[in-house]
Amino acid sequence: MAKKRKPTNVWLKRSLLIAGCLLAGFLVYISYRVFGPNTKAFGDSKYFYVRTGSTYRDVLDGLEDQGIVRNRSSFDWVAKELGYPSRVKAGRYKISHGMSNFTIAKMLRSGKQSPITLVINKLRTKDDLIKKVSTNLEADSNALRALLNDQVYLRQFNLDTNSAMCAVVPNTYEFYWNTNAETVFKKLEKEREEFWTEARKNKASALGLTPVQVTVLASIVDEESNKADEKSLIASVYLNRFRKGMRLQADPTVKFALQDFGLKRIREGHTQYDSPYNTYRYNGLPPGPICTPMKKTMDAVLNTPETDYLYFCARSDFSGYHAFAATYAEHLVNARKYQAELNKRGF
Length: 347
Hints:
Layout: H1 2-35, E1 45-50, H2 56-65, H3 72-81, E2 91-96, H4 101-110, E3 116-120, H5 126-136, H6 141-148, H7 151-155, E4 171-175, H8 181-195, H9 198-206, H10 211-224, H11 231-244, H12 251-258, H13 268-271, H14 295-302, E5 311-314, E6 322-325, H15 328-345
Antiparallel strand pairs: 1-2, 3-4, 5-6
Helix pairs in contact: 3-4, 5-6, 10-11, 10-14, 11-14
């Protein structure tokens, strides 16, 4: 009787083995769809951008159109299993080559995006700032322009439409790509607030200047020289002229007024251009900065030494340094040397 049951046991074992193999194959298949690599051929990494207001369909289309995922349907299946379609978050996401559907979907669902490092150095105009921000972030350029020209909004920061760029202190900033215009401005303004410590405010007050006026003066100094060791002397010239009620007659303000930053030589015709930024025509400081001055330059202004200098001009040796003078007669000697050298070099 035992021998008659043997075929049944063999077939049962075979059936179980086949079923086990099929189950194992199915599990491997599922595991591969979930955890196996599903990126197309690209370098070590690639950034994927999800715009604010994007739908899950937009994400799927983007992953395919931008050459991120190799198999759209497998990603779609995993993403739905993780509940991602109802939890789409805007941002900039770093996709590494060989990532699995599970890893990509989990990252997108969590909103764990890669921040952007935004280095702000010298900017001259609002348009420069708007271009810098809108090129690197999702922030709407029109929204940022509206903020920079909103007198009521700027008043809370003790700024106006002319001095709005005083809020921008050159530094390295970190933003998430989907940061909006107002958040960008507030982060810049926070950096300015941190720069203006009580000690710096006291130094400005001792000079008879407000923080905004220091920034405006520093912007002129920054445009006048790249030599850190003479910036305080340049600041002293302008402060002395300012206190005496003399016009500053700063060439960089003429360039700003004309919006021609490539001018090599300021001539009399240029100095007659009618603009409140033209310090050849109007007394006092310009109504706003002509660039975003470096922190070191603002500190140079705050630490201006006492001098009797009222004039300066570039040295005729083209070293980048300046010759300073207390009298106009002495200044004319320095200026003629420099002008002669300009003529000699064909400028």
